Input
Amino acid sequence: MSSTSRRLFWLKALFHLIGLIPIVYLVLKVLSDNAGGDPVQYIIHFTGTGALNALAATLLISPIAKKFKLGILLQTRRLVGLYVFSYASLHVFAFFSLDLLFAWSLFFEEVLKRPYILVGATAYILLSALAITSFKSVRRTMGKRWQRLHNSIYLIAVLVPVHFYWSVKSEIIEPSLYLIFFTALLGIRLNKIKSWTPTVLKYFSAFSSKGRGKSDP
Ligand code: HEM
Output
């Protein structure tokens, strides 16, 4: 094993530890009856915040690697990204199983009735697409389309803090701080995001002129 692969191995082991310890903590809290008066709400909040923090970590990797010339960090992006997906899956599953008791109709009703849940669900669908296509073989098959799809991480970085902000009833300081933090993370990438704008606008105008064409007599 070369020294770089050894360092990468330990770095990944550390990230696994950081990702798994909170889950063990949550299980122990719930099993020991220490998850507050409403354990279901506690689990939903805990896993949601876990996903949000992991998302922040994913977006921090590139700027930190660039600033401190730590190229090795870039090789941990997939791992951290998969933790975002895992925490988000636990969060959605906790809501669906413990809160809605597996009632599909109620789930779709909630998605349509509460805009913040629709925003969360949109982010979750995008996250699932990124997780499914995160394998090397899929990346190779998808070619240029892979990068285009994976750029939607920036849309997810907008949707999730909005979902959080919208979900709270009174305490807005924490979600506001997250909104500011994610705005700053996206701000760092402004040039990159700006460079896609013409492509996105091109797609939109092509799409809308197609729609107009259909309705025109
Ligand atoms: C189908 C998708 C989703 C559903 C149904 C859903 C549902 C919920 C619900 C019911 C709450 C609690 C609102 C309350 O306080 O009553 C919540 C809060 C939250 N969700 Fe989601 N969510 C979804 C997707 C996501 C995703 C993808 C993320 C992150 C990657 C996320 C992160 C959060 C966060 C950070 C909170 C606030 C937690 C807190 O109060 O401390 N959610 N969500």
Notes: The chain has ten helices and no strands. Residues 44-45, 48-49, 51-52, 55, 84, 88, 91-92, 95, 117, 120-121, 123-124, 127, 160, 163-164, 167-168 surround protoporphyrin IX containing FE (CB under 6 Å). Residues 212-217 have pLDDT under 50 and may be disordered. Residues 3-31 form the longest helix (29 residues).
